[in-house]
């Protein structure tokens, strides 16, 4: 096993680019370091996106997420960095990354970062009885 994971995100062609559909992923083992104390910070990442032409490949996503384990990063910065990187490689119609960090000093932190293609409009919500 390599000591440093690869950080290159891979993609593959969206098998249904003509329709809107959502891809949802839960990543419960995200770890980075507090840039002030060096203590580990743990989070569950919830990724949701409506793909356009490309989808992210899961094994490369796992390695990319693993690459943060020894990096110092503020919660806000790391969440937006991950969202920016994922949006850059997949160019989704819509993407939302929610990072739910474990308690630190008696405070729970949740960061929500969204990215939306300028001309994309979601389907209207249908509330079934």
Write the layout of secondary structure elements.
Elements: E1 11-13, E2 23-33, E3 40-50, E4 54-56, H1 58-66, H2 75-90, E5 94-104, E6 107-116
Antiparallel strand pairs: 1-4, 2-3, 3-5, 5-6
Textual characterization of the structure:
- It contains two helices and six strands.
- It has one domain: GTP Cyclohydrolase I, domain 2.
- With 129 residues, the protein is of the alpha+beta class.
- Strands 2-3-5-6 form a four-stranded antiparallel sheet, covered by helices on one side. The protein has a two-stranded antiparallel sheet with strand order 1-4.
Summarize the model shown.
The protein contains two helices and six strands; from the N terminus they run ββββααββ.
Radius of gyration: 16 Å
Supply the number of helical segments.
2
Strand content: 35-45%
Helix vs. strand class: alpha+beta
Mean pLDDT: 94
Total beta strands: 6
What is the highest CATH level, the class?
Alpha Beta
Write the H/E string, N to C. EEEEHHEE
Unreliable stretches covering 5 or more consecutive residues = none
Mass-distribution shape: globular
**Overall domain count:** 1
The largest sheet, given as strand count, sense and whether it forms a barrel, is: 4 strands, antiparallel
Helix content estimate: 10-25%
CATH superfamily: GTP cyclohydrolase I, C-terminal domain/NADPH-dependent 7-cyano-7-deazaguanine reductase, N-terminal domain
What name does CATH use for the topology?
GTP Cyclohydrolase I, domain 2
Features:
globular, GTP Cyclohydrolase I, domain 2, 4-stranded antiparallel β-sheet, single chain, two-stranded antiparallel sheet, alpha+beta, 2 helices, 38% strand, 6 strands, 129 residues
């Amino acid at each position: 096993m390599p000591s440093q994971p690869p950080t290159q995100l891979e993609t593959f062609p969206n098998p249904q680019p003509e329709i809107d559909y959502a891809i949802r992923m839960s990543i419960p083992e995200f770890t980075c370091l507090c840039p002030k104390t060096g203590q580990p910070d743990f989070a569950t990442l919830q990724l949701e996106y409506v793909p356009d032409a490309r989808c992210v490949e899961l094994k490369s996503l796992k390695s990319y997420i693993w690459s943060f384990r020894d990096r110092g990063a503020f919660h806000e910065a790391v969440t937006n960095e991950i969202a920016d990187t994922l949006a850059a490689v997949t160019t989704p119609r819509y993407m939302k990354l929610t990072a739910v960090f474990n308690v630190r000093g008696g405070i729970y932190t949740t960061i929500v970062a969204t990215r939306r293609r300028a001309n994309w409009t979601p389907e209207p919500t249908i509330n079934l009885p």
